[in-house]
């Protein structure tokens, strides 16, 4: 069947269309995205203003039309931290339902972490052993750890790159004192969670998902996206630590000239780098691997898990084997 997953994130609204059936990997057929940066549109009271809601509805309408054009049998719509934490979330969801006809499911932070972990587990397989997964979105940081498809520990922290940039990193480039203050804040928040994971022992494999980690790996020398999904891409803490002060001294325009950095993400890349560096440092990660699959794929995989399997033909009878 052809499925569409509509991800209303803190940075973008992204429709991913895949051809999929139970037991097979989803094959991407179409991608439709629009920069919205909801995390930066919240007012002083934490609400998404009327203009922001209007823009959100227009973008969702466009994505739904694209899903129809591409022949999707079903669309799985969900929203993450920007909508989840908006003080007027109920009103926003009601308007979206009234004007677009869809019920936008709002994932909890723990659900985000678990579904992203599922995608990473399926991508790397059982041979990866105990897996630690990190994901930096526009509004939150997700951390998950486990040996099965359901993580043993999963947390979500309000440390998204867009959220932190809008709230704590004014200026272009930002003032060094603001950078230092953000660094302290991020490390204190992450440090509170380390004990929840350390009791399970050392992970066998550390992976990272999300656009932020992909861009950080790219500027540190990882292969470009055009080289395909199956090229191994890694990010070392040493390389990242060398890039953080460079990013802090750059304007958003200068960051745009770096390989793999998009205009829409350039301003918030420094905040994302500070979060990534802190997480790698506090969890003792020297190097991690970039996972091509993340939350959207996790949502698709979970949906496929709940589809009835195709009717199998009657099994062939084995020949009778004489006893010894």
What does it look like?
It is a single chain. The strands form 2 sheets. This protein has a 6-stranded mixed β-sheet, with helices on both faces. Strands 3-2-1-4-5 form a 5-stranded mixed β-sheet, sandwiched between helices. It is built from 13 helices and 11 strands. The chain has 324 residues and is an alpha/beta fold. A hairpin with a 7-residue loop joins strand 2 (12-19) and strand 3. The radius of gyration is 21 Å and the shape is globular. Helix 5 crosses helix 12 and helix 8 (211-219) crosses helix 12. The protein has helices at 50-69, 81-84, 89-100, 109-124, 161-168, 176-191, 194-198, 211-219, 237-248, 252-255, 263-266, 269-282, 295-305, and strands at 2-8, 12-19, 27-35, 74-79, 105-106, 131-136, 141-146, 153-157, 205-209, 234-236, 287-290. 42% of the residues lie in helices and 19% in strands. The model has no long low-confidence stretch (mean pLDDT 92).
């Amino acid at each position: 069947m052809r499925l569409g997953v509509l991800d209303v994130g803190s940075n973008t609204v992204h429709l991913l269309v895949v051809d999929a059936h139970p037991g097979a990997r989803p094959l991407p057929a179409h991608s439709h995205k629009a920069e919205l940066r909801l995390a930066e549109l919240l007012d002083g009271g934490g609400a998404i203003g009327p203009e922001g809601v209007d823009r959100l509805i227009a973008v969702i309408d466009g994505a739904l039309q694209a899903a129809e054009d591409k022949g999707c049998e079903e669309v799985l719509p969900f929203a993450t931290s920007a909508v989840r934490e908006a003080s007027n979330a109920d009103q926003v969801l009601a308007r979206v339902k009234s004007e677009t006809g869809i019920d936008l499911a709002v994932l909890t932070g723990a659900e985000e972490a678990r579904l992203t972990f599922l995608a990473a587990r399926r991508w790397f397989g059982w041979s990866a052993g105990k897996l630690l997964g990190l994901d930096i979105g526009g509004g939150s940081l997700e951390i998950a750890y486990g040996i099965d498809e359901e993580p043993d520990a999963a947390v979500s922290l309000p440390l998204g790159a867009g959220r932190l940039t809008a709230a704590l990193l004014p200026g272009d480039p930002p003032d060094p004192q603001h950078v230092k203050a953000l660094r302290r804040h991020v490390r204190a928040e992450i440090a509170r969670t380390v004990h929840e994971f350390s009791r399970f022992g050392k992970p066998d494999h550390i992976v990272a998902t999300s656009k932020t980690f992909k861009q950080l790996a790219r500027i540190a020398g990882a292969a470009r996206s055009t080289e395909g999904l199956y090229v191994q891409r890694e990010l070392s803490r040493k390389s990242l630590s060398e890039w953080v002060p460079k990013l802090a001294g750059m304007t958003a325009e200068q960051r745009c000239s770096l390989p793999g950095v998009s205009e829409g993400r350039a301003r918030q890349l420094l905040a994302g780098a500070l979060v990534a560096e802190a997480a790698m440092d506090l969890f003792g990660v020297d190097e991690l691997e970039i996972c091509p699959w993340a939350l959207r794929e996790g949502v698709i995989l979970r949906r496929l898990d709940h589809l009835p399997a195709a009717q199998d033909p009657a099994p062939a009878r084995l020949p009778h084997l004489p006893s010894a």
